[in-house]
UniProtKB/TrEMBL annotation:
<feature type="region of interest" description="Disordered">
    <location>
        <begin position="30"/>
        <end position="59"/>
    </location>
</feature>
<protein>
    <recommendedName>
        <fullName>Secreted protein</fullName>
    </recommendedName>
</protein>
Amino acid sequence: MKGCVAVLAFMVFGAAVLVGVAIAVERRGTAKSEPLTGTTSEVELTDYEPKSHGRKKRHQGADIEYLYVAGGRTFQSSTWLSRTTLSDRVVCFDPDDPAVHAIRGNPQATCGEANHGETRRAVEVAAR
């Protein structure tokens, strides 16, 4: 009986390691240092929920969901943006993999090596 429990525990541990490796491989392509040289201002805010972040809730902003068009394809993602970056949005993306992107609130932002924001992976959706 003890041997069965040990084998089961080993199998559960092994499965957990495999899941962790799969997640790491999926996220590998979203480092902040990737060159996001593509730019699009075709950004549509689909959900907006005001929310404060940080110590003592001093950082005003909102949790948002958005769509953007890059390379003729539509992608969906979500993030928190500060109040100062909610108005005019631009998305910088990797032309080789448009799902890898960073959203910015400054339409004059230069896309490139310094992404000035968290790089994330979007999900491709059917065009609307």
